[in-house]
Amino acid sequence: MKSIAIFIERRNQKICSVGLELLSETKRLLKDSDNQIVALYLTDKKTDEDINRLETCGADKIITYVDPQFQTYDTLIYTKGLENIIKTNDFDVLLLGSTLIGRDLGPRLSARVHTGLTADATLLEFEQTEERLNLLATRPALGGNLFATIICPDHKPQMATIRPGVFSIEVFDNHKAEKVIFEEKILIKSKVEILSKKVNETAYVDLTKAKLIIAGGRGVATMFPTLKEIALLTGGEVAASRAVVDQNIEPKDRQVGQTGVTVRPSVYVASGISGAIQHMSGMDKSEMIIAINTDPNALIFNVADISIIADANKVLPLLKEEIQLIKH
Ligand code: FAD
Q1: 98-111, pLDDT tens digit by residue?
Q2: Nearest to 56 by CA among 44, 43, 39, 42
């Protein structure tokens, strides 16, 4: 039996979705095997609610490590915590979210335990041989012009960070997990003292949770006020291509794609977006894609369920009027 460990990231005392996404996807990929999926739950305060979520999202075993120093993310403390667990468990694979925390923690930890790490993967596969369970982690390479599948055949655990929002969360009813408490003390103290916290006042939007996304690209750069009105009327969120973000029309947290966020909403409306691979790798798993573009050969039409070959500057105001009529 091989084991796949998944770091369960927490922020503001809450489990982040990426850990649950990784549990669910690993469970789906390995459902017909006897391999064990292990959730690594580092917390200052264990809750039954958290444990239940990890269990129903596919964890076969939950290792809970409670320490007051896990209250707020701290690079050295979390690295030490995971290192302690890894050194007493023979994990074959270790997965983390490719978030600010995962990107900080993953490389430091891989150096600490002398293994390899694939950063920012967007696809996971497992290959079972008699001796090993190989992780095949795929990520965009060479500026996103090709995808590279990376393996780490000689070291363990094989590590990867995976982008949030790539996989869906699934609930496996009646799934039960073995629960273990990890007791080793964290013998180091944080070198960071938090003097105060200030909440970022800009209205941060988690696009990965949006069901409807109204996205615009360079072709509709002047139409963002209309896109925002449509989003407001429909309960959607506005997103943008990098071309728009680079022009400071929209903030970086609205950028979809390889260097932005990965989204999979029920509906993604792409106006004036050409469909560069770096954009599409962040939205091509949306359930329905509606594309509006003047160019009939635009690549975005290759992934669109509904293709509107038209001037979006004319279509969008009409769309807004229609929605207003329906709502009144
Ligand atoms: P363009 O490619 O210029 O396309 C504009 C489109 O609008 C065209 O198809 C045109 O036909 C259409 N159009 C023009 N006028 C109208 C109109 N009136 N009505 C309807 N359609 C119209 N890009 C991202 O988006 N996200 C990323 O995360 C990202 N990461 C990158 C990472 C790297 C390493 C690199 C090298 C690039 C990255 N890019 C990313 C950039 C990407 O390659 C493209 O340059 C970018 O996505 C293009 O944005 P766009 O489609 O808005 O603009």
Answers
A1: 999 999 999 999 99
A2: 39
